[in-house]
Specification:
heterodimer, A: 313 residues, 12 helices, B: 111 residues, mainly alpha, Helix Hairpins, 0% strand
């Protein structure tokens, strides 16, 4: 047993301890804080699994944005403690649920232990076809070329989710107008950080997008960081969330999927297949899609977290 | 060997998430547990990816790309669920899943 393996086991134990806290904690707010810590520890797991792209996504989206969204919800929605307390303490359902969960976890663990050796892998195929796109990052290759259909449909899912969130919001007289998330206090620490961090964060976000071609990073990670900077400004009360009825905003929201779809159909027209990029222009086309996608991702993620949530005035 | 340890950790996290999803009566806590369950499943993808290291890559890129897509969709679904909860709270004054609490919430709101 090497020291690295011991450290890995320690990370795994910590992850499970924080996960248990998330489930067992009394208050919702404490549970969400536990979930954010869980996500950050999971980021270390992803690094140890040599999946840096996923680690960046987990830190920015799985832990950061999901955490911000749920923290907001936990502070707005009161705890429903009455009437459920009796139901909470019933022993038989608890034991049954624990047994069922343990059985599911056991089956999954058995699957992990019995994985075939040598493991099936698509890495050689991805490696052999990497020349076709001219990108050095294999994960970006899979996302943008080999499984581009998934990525395109996922952009559509994001926009659909935002449409859902907007239609659920209480509508004020002229369209849904989101209110600021906090009382603006221009001298607070939050406001100071909201002035200090965005210039750095915007550069980091664009850098991740640009470097995503050859190194870990890409449209998702870059877009999530841009969204986080935007949220920071909105939360500090330095900027208002834009109204969903603005035409230009709506155009920017659909520009990612539409550029993707247009280039995809262009591939069909050139006679190869839907989403097939002409070999000579593969890299510029992928970059064009990624730029449009980053804009859409940053706006959609920001608006999903900062969606209008106040009841009608 | 480390990958197996993380795989067992992912399986246990998924089990914990499932337990919370069943047992916790609060919708927000169920949502949190559901995210935990999803994160555990994602780690299993990561283990398969790490074991699939071949050619020049230290991990199979295909499961990694699937997980990245999955995380973004999970956030979108969570945001939609939070919006539904908020709407339920605005309409009924409570966010419980049983009729008793909901009517109590409504009474507290419109005496």
């Amino acid at each position: 047993m090497t020291i690295v393996f011991a450290l890995d086991c320690w990370i795994a134990v910590l992850v499970l301890a924080v996960a248990s806290w998330t489930i067992m904690a009394r208050g919702s707010f404490a549970a969400v804080v536990g979930f954010v810590a869980f996500g950050l520890l999971l980021t270390l797991v992803w690094v140890r699994l040599d999946a840096i792209d996923v680690a960046l996504t987990e830190a920015a989206i799985g832990s950061g944005l999901t955490g911000a969204l749920l923290l907001g919800a936990a502070s707005r929605l009161p705890e429903a403690e009455f009437a459920t307390q009796a139901q909470h303490s019933l022993l038989v359902p608890r034991v049954a649920a624990a047994l069922l969960s343990a059985a599911v976890a056991g089956v999954l663990a058995g699957g992990v232990l019995l994985l075939p050796d040598p493991a099936p892998s698509l890495a050689p195929v991805a490696d052999a076809n990497a020349v076709a796109t001219g990108l050095g990052n294999p994960v970006t290759n899979v996302l943008m070329a080999f499984r581009a259909m998934d990525t395109m449909l996922e952009k559509v899912v994001l926009v659909l989710a935002l449409v859902g969130v907007w239609s659920l919001a209480q509508v004020r007289r002229s369209g849904a107008h989101p209110l600021p998330l906090h009382r603006p206090d221009r001298d607070s620490t939050l406001a100071f950080l909201a002035r200090l961090l965005p210039p750095v964060g915007i550069v980091v976000g664009i850098y991740l997008l640009w470097e995503g071609a050859d190194h870990p990073g890409g449209a998702f990670q870059g877009g999530a960081i841009l969204a986080a900077m935007w949220l920071l400004v909105m939360m500090a009360g330095l900027g208002d969330a834009p109204s969903g009825s603005r035409g230009r905003l709506r155009l920017a929201l659909i520009c990612g999927p539409s550029v993707f779809l247009t280039i995809g159909l262009f591939g069909l027209w050139l006679g190869e297949a839907f989403l097939a990029y002409p070999a000579a222009y593969a890299k510029p086309l992928i970059l064009a899609i990624e730029f449009a996608m980053t804009l859409t991702i940053a706006l959609t993620l920001g608006l999903l977290v900062a969606a209008p949530r106040e009841s009608a005035a | 060997m480390s990958a197996t340890a993380f795989g067992l950790c992912g399986a246990a996290a998924a089990g914990l998430g499932l337990y919370g999803l069943i047992i916790d009566p609060q919708p927000l806590r169920k949502l949190l547990a559901f995210n935990l369950l999803g994160a555990g499943a994602f780690v299993l993808f990561g283990v398969v990816s790490r074991r699939g290291a071949a050619a020049t890559f230290s991990a199979d890129p295909v499961p990694q790309a699937l997980v990245i897509t999955g995380m973004v969709v999970a956030l979108a679904a969570t945001a939609l669920a939070v919006a539904l909860l908020q709407r339920l709270f605005d309409a009924a004054g409570a966010t419980a899943l049983d009729a008793e609490t909901m009517s109590a919430g409504r009474d507290a709101r419109d005496p």
